Amino acid sequence: MNATTELRMTSEKMPVGKGFAVVFTMAGGQLDVEWLPRMPGPRRGRQCLPSYRLARNEFLRRVALKTGLNVMVVEA
After folding, report:
1. Dist. CA 70–CA 6, nearest whole Å
2. Nearest to 9 by CA among 36, 28, 34, 37
3. Which of 6, 28, 38, 45 has the fewest CB atoms found within 10 Å of its own CB?
């Protein structure tokens, strides 16, 4: 096992606007996101996207600082 597969970090609840928030978890080299209270629909989702990206990037910055690993995001 290496640091990537052993790592497990979870963020606090991070608001992303329009009454939505996210909680990120990094485990086994995979990033998962839980939307609260649920994932927004397409219109609200687009409105939340800039704040979501800021929250995601902040969480991944913390992961990188804690582990010393390089982190990269690819959006598809």
Report:
1. 16
2. 28
3. 38
What residues are paired with 14 via a beta bridge? 22
| 65 sits in which H/E element | helix 42-67
Phi, psi for residue 18 in degrees, rounded to 5: 55, 30
Helix (H), strand (E) at residue 36: strand 30-36
pLDDT tens column, 29-70: 899 999 999 999 999 999 999 999 999 999 999 999 999 989
- What are the beta bridge partners of residue 15? 21
Instruction: Give the residue, 32 or 2, on which the prediction is more confident.
Output: 32
Are 38 and 55 in contact by the 8 Å Cβ rule? The answer is no
